[in-house]
Design a protein that fits this description.
alpha+beta, 5-stranded antiparallel beta sheet, 25% helix, binds 2-oxoglutaric acid, 9 helices, 294 residues, 10 strands, 3-stranded antiparallel beta sheet, disordered C terminus, Jelly Rolls
Length: 294
């Protein structure tokens, strides 16, 4: 990864998203890919509490016949996994990702402060042929789904496979984050028809495995279906700016950690929560199961 905080900051401010090639080095990319595949392949061996954190494509298709009638049935999806919540509980490789320096460098630059905090880390393994996008690939803002004291939140998509239009790439409307927080929170932004948008500003991300995509959750974005014959795995992580606090009664595992904080108490919290040298691979702990958007 090329370290260019000024370029990141400017692009984030102007466009509402940035694409950072080579965010994940080869060893990290490979360890994350193996970790995700291990969860998917050994699903039946997970503890009941961890099993509950998996959400399957067949359930999503059953819940949303309006998107798939005549195209895809729940049975077509087999055991394909759609989402894995609270990834850090499954394996130390994911817990350590909360402290991954290159990602924290970008976050610190675009938040403009070291006092940002961790919200969640989830897996989005879009299976070959039957992996599905969000809301049938419609554009949306994440802001109306979120519950925080203020709107200063960033999602990071870590691409574990190459991403292109054929496998359901993420799309953005460049500059669409430039609306008031109040406007961005309106519920009609949960699902927007393409004909209501300025598609001249549409950007379809094409990138290699290991790329990181960082976006302001006010930015209009979309994620399509994967009908290619290869998986399109990604890991998503959300972070919130200084003094942004959750207002919902639910919490994700490790939520609130501040891995770049200058305050001694947060450094101590990090060291005690995710000890170094790293936890051994395969260790898992339990936490409450939280719902996500579907
Ligand atoms: O996975 C992606 O490409 C984007 C995900 C997305 O749209 C969302 O989580 O709101």
């Amino acid at each position: 990864m090329i370290y260019e905080p000024e370029v990141w900051r400017r692009a984030y401010q102007d466009d509402g998203f940035i694409v950072v090639p080579g965010l994940l080095d080869q060893a990290t990319l490979s360890a994350l890919y193996k970790g995700l595949e291990k969860i998917i392949e050994n699903r039946e061996e997970l503890t009941p509490a961890l099993k509950e954190k998996l959400f399957l494509e067949r359930e999503h298709v059953k819940n949303n016949p309006q998107y798939y009638a005549g195209d895809l049935t729940p049975e077509d999806c087999g055991d394909a996994v759609r989402q894995i919540e609270d990834l850090p509980l499954f394996d130390a490789v994911f817990a350590r990702l909360i402290c991954y320096s290159p990602m924290l460098d970008v976050l610190e630059a675009i938040f403009g402060s070291p006092e940002f905090s961790f919200n969640y880390l989830i897996g989005r393994p879009k299976a070959a042929r039957v992996g599905n996008g969000i809301s049938d690939g419609h554009f949306h803002r994440d802001t109306p789904f979120e519950e925080f004291t203020s709107v200063n939140t960033i999602v990071v998509i870590m691409c574990l496979n190459d991403m292109s239009a054929e496998n359901g790439a993420t799309e953005f409307i460049r500059g669409s984050h430039q609306v008031s927080d109040e406007e961005a929170k309106k519920s009609y932004w949960r699902d927007v028809d393409r004909d209501k948008l300025d598609l001249e500003e549409r950007v379809v991300v094409g990138c290699s495995a290991g790329t990181g995509i960082f976006f302001n959750t006010k930015t209009l974005h979309a994620a399509g279906h994967n009908r290619s014959d290869r998986p399109r795995h990604a890991i998503l992580s959300e972070w919130v700016g200084p003094n942004v606090l959750p207002t919902s009664p639910d919490r994700y595992a490790y939520q609130g950690l501040r891995p770049r904080s200058k305050e001694a108490v947060y450094r101590k919290q990090l060291e005690m929560s995710i000890p170094t040298p790293p936890l051994t691979s395969g260790s898992a702990r339990l936490a409450v199961s939280l719902p996500f958007i579907f």
